[in-house]
Amino acid sequence: MRQGFPIATKGMVIGLLGGSFDPAHAGHAHLTREALKRFGLDRVWWLVSPGNPLKARQPAPMVDRLVRARAVIDDPRVIITDIEARLDTRYTAATLEALGAHYPGVRFVWLMGADNLLQFDRWDRWQDIMRMVPIGVLARPGSRIGARLSKTAEVFWRARIPEVAAQRLAYGPAPRWCFLNMPLMNVSSSTIRAQGGWGRRANG
């Protein structure tokens, strides 16, 4: 395994939570804990991205975002990584292809908040992503109904598995996705930035 890459062994089930984490906050930690428990994951990797291709504004320096993320959640099952920068990938489809090549036999599950499902059809090669790995979608404030009526949900409605089968999400062929309802935490990175909260104590 290349230096600086997270360790994973064949048969492990790893959730991938991508984003700029600008900054990471308690909502990310809450979503991660729910995903670990309800999707039966062995680990969750926070993929702190070099930048978001869909956003004109670019994030704070990588080192600052990594430090903040590690302060937000202290759990040995959660790995904070800059692997996308190391792989030189900016788009999720390319990242998933690279991870599949580097980690044969590992079961990856892509994790996202329901707010991302709303605009998932704008992502590069979004239908390819759906066919690469199972996807776990977790409720976010104001997005429950809209996400389930999104273009992605409509196109891939046959691939949705019921919430009661969430523990088996990783063990079937993609396309395969599951929507989880969960207690909501109304916090966002954009709100924290707007309130000048980057320098405040992280907790989660």
Account of the 3D structure:
By secondary structure, this protein is of the alpha/beta class. The chain has a single domain, classed as Rossmann fold (3-Layer(aba) Sandwich). It contains nine helices and seven strands. A seven-stranded parallel β-sheet has the order 3-2-1-4-5-7-6. Strand 1, helix 1 and strand 2 (43-48) form a beta-alpha-beta unit. Helix 4 packs parallel to helix 6. Residues 200-204 have low confidence and may be disordered.
What characteristics describe this protein?
disordered C terminus; single chain; Rossmann fold; 9 helices
A few lines on this structure:
33% of the residues lie in helices and 17% in strands. The chain has a single domain (13-195), classed as Rossmann fold (3-Layer(aba) Sandwich). The protein is built from 9 helices and 7 strands.
